[in-house]
Amino acid sequence: MRQRAGILYQQLDTLRGLRREAQKGMMEESRRHPAYRILKQIPGLGPIRIAQILAQVASPHRFRTKRQFWAYCGLAVVTRSSGDYQFREGRAEKRQRAPMTRGLNPNFNHRLKEVFKSAALEGIHRAPFDCCYARLVEKGMRPELARLTLARKIAAVTLTLWKRGESFDELKLSTQVT
């Protein structure tokens, strides 16, 4: 038992070294990307998160709108329904009730969802996103939904700045929460 534990710890030490080297290589490669300097200005996004975003998204122009980006990141709400119409007297009529929400999009990029949700957790304690979060909670929104909304806001800001090539400006953050 002791011998097996010793071997497992040796493997762990080796893997930790490899992980550090891989992380260092990932950081060097992401710093060469022109978007790195733009995304670095966004609070809550550190160098590792930026490298993961750059690696997963590759080009922000793949997404026409922020809602498409949210769906890709797993932050979009699904409202599809198969019971929107009913048949009466041989004719299809639209039902009066609104489609029910079915939760978040199940088909998404897991890495990006983790990146933006962890950025939102950090953004709760950092300006300017702390004010957005506090405002949402004051309005009566549940804290987990406020964090999701904050993650969406960070994702939208990331996509917009990356597409336009602009620098981050706290004053441009709208008071309207996405």
3D architecture notes:
With 178 residues, the chain is mainly alpha-helical. The chain has a domain of 121 residues. The protein is built from 7 helices and 2 strands, in the order ααααββααα. Strands 1-2 form a two-stranded antiparallel ribbon. The termini are far apart.
Strand and helix map with partners:
Layout: H1 2-31, H2 36-39, H3 47-57, H4 66-73, E1 85-88, E2 91-94, H5 110-123, H6 129-138, H7 143-164
Antiparallel strand pairs: 1-2
Helix pairs in contact: 1-3, 3-5, 4-7, 5-7, 6-7
Descriptors for this entry?
178 residues, single chain, mainly alpha, two-stranded antiparallel ribbon, extended, 7 helices, 4% strand, 2 strands
Helix count equals 7
The helix-strand sequence is HHHHEEHHH
Mean pLDDT: 89
What structural category do the secondary elements indicate?
Answer: mainly alpha
Give a summary of the structure in a few sentences:
56% of the residues lie in helices and 4% in strands. The chain has helices spanning 2-31, 36-39, 47-57, 66-73, 110-123, 129-138, 143-164, and strands at 85-88, 91-94.
